């Protein structure tokens, strides 16, 4: 009888996934975190920010690959990432001269140089393709020390675009709806025909 009870307890046991201590260990589709030295405030907000993305942007990030979040002073240099998010003033300031802030574009040779090389059939070692350096515009800076969590949502939507972040847009509208005043909320619910005009 005692053994049966023990097996029942084993059948009813619940496996609890403990919270991740490191920001890099939070598993989000198409998303990576890289950290430097950070304060407890930035850590806490970045932790909640990543979990907010994991909960409300899982579908959105499916269509937006190659994302990295940089947190703290002197985070590791991101490589081959399409979207770079800088979280907090420390990450923004200490990466001002980082390589990822510039894009090296190899310019095409002009038409005359191309014709000359074809007619002479010789390549001049001096005629190397010119490289243009342009600022990387695929960087989102979320300022503050620490940044306020809900102040990050609007810039995120603007950065990815409404069509590429429908879940986050819906979440943002829901937050606005629930945090508005009672009268405004009632008017909104009436306009959406959730409640009747007589209520």
What does this 3D model show about the protein?
- The strands form two sheets. A four-stranded parallel β-sheet has the order 1-2-3-6.
- It contains eight helices and six strands.
- Helix content is 40%, strand content 15%.
- It starts with a helix and ends in an 8-residue tail after the last helix.
- The model has no long low-confidence stretch (mean pLDDT 82).
- With 199 residues, it is of the alpha/beta class.
- It is extended, with a radius of gyration of 26 Å.
- It has a domain at 19-102 and 137-191.
Task: Write a compact overview of the structure shown.
It contains 8 helices and 6 strands; from the N terminus they run αβααββαβαββααα. It is α/β, with parallel strands linked by helices and 199 residues long. The chain has a 4-stranded parallel beta sheet. The chain has a two-stranded antiparallel sheet with strand order 4-5.
Fold topology:
Blueprint lengths: L1 H10 L19 E5 L4 H17 L1 H5 L4 E5 L11 E5 L1 H6 L7 E5 L4 H10 L10 E5 L3 E4 L10 H8 L5 H14 L2 H10 L8
Parallel strand pairs: 1-2, 2-3, 3-6
Antiparallel strand pairs: 4-5
């Amino acid at each position: 009888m005692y053994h049966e009870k023990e097996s029942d307890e084993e059948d009813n046991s619940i496996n609890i996934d403990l919270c991740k201590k490191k920001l890099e260990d939070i598993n989000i589709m198409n998303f990576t975190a890289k950290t430097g030295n950070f304060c407890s405030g930035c850590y806490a907000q970045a932790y909640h920010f990543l979990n907010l993305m994991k909960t409300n942007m899982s579908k959105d990030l499916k269509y937006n690959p190659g994302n990295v979040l940089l947190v703290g002073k002197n985070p590791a240099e991101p490589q081959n990432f399409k979207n770079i998010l800088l979280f907090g003033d420390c990450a923004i300031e200490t990466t001002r001269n980082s390589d990822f802030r510039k894009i090296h574009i190899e310019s095409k040779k002009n038409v005359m140089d191309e014709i000359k090389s074809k007619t002479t059939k010789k390549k001049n070692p001096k005629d190397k393709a010119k490289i243009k350096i342009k600022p990387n515009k695929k960087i989102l800076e979320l300022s503050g020390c620490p940044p306020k969590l809900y102040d990050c949502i609007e810039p995120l939507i603007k950065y990815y675009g409404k069509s590429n972040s429908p879940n986050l847009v819906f979440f943002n509208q829901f937050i606005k709806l629930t945090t508005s005043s009672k009268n405004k909320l009632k008017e909104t619910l009436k306009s959406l025909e959730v409640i009747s005009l007589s209520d």
